Amino acid sequence: MIKRLALALALLAPLQAAAVEPSEILADPALEERAREISKGLRCLVCRNENIDDSNASLAKDLRLLVRERLTEGDSDEEVMDYVVDRYGEYVLLQPTLTGSNIVLYIAGPAMLLLGLGIAFVYIRGRRRQETAQQGLSPEEEARLKEIMGE
């Protein structure tokens, strides 16, 4: 019995679990394909980092229906995306645009890394200079050391 269950699970594992319900699928295959392509770029606001086609959340279902509704009304792909972004904000995009305040977010990570590397370089360089300055004794210090040692 356990072997059969393991075999069944092994056979079912490769199947992709899409959350799109049969009642949501459009009759026109071209429109359905467009809806799927648009849905791949939209984030489920509940699940995070999962597109709305793969999510079972009710909000993802609402977004899928909204996309299909806009397509059946004759909107282009760009118009559908603009409508969804206007309604839910740019966070709904899985790949945000490189404009406006997002540029700061894209640049901030590498800039902070470079700043940190620069600070580390200056700190290490200063420590090395300090160490080389302290390595040898001055002639006066050597004379005083010999005097103390009794030589």
In CATH, the topology of the largest domain is named Helicase, Ruva Protein, domain 3
Alpha-carbon distance between the two ends: 92 Å
Detail the poorly predicted runs: 13-17
Shape: elongated
CATH superfamily of the largest domain: Cytochrome C biogenesis protein
DSSP strand tally = 0
> Approximately how much beta-strand content do the residues carry?
under 5%
How many alpha or pi helices? 6
> Can you give the mean pLDDT?
82
Quickly give the structural class. Answer: mainly alpha
Q: H/E element string?
A: HHHHHH
Gyration radius over CA: 32 Å
Tally of individual domains: 2
Proportion of helical residues: 55-70%
Signal peptide: 1-19
Family: Belongs to the CcmH/CycL/Ccl2/NrfF family.
Keywords: Cytochrome c-type biogenesis, Heme, Iron, Membrane, Metal-binding, Signal, Transmembrane, Transmembrane helix
InterPro entries: C-type_cytochrome_biogenesis, CcmH/CycL/Ccl2/NrfF_N, CcmH/CycL/NrfF/Ccl2_sf
Topology:
Layout: H1 2-12, H2 29-40, H3 58-72, H4 77-88, H5 101-135, H6 139-149
Helix pairs in contact: 2-3, 3-4
Could you characterize the architecture of this molecule?
With 151 residues, this protein is mostly helical. The chain has two domains: 16-92, Helicase, Ruva Protein, domain 3; 101-149. Helices cover 64% and strands 0% of the residues. The protein is elongated and about 105 Å long. The chain starts with a helix and ends with a helix. Mean pLDDT is 82; it is low at 13-17.
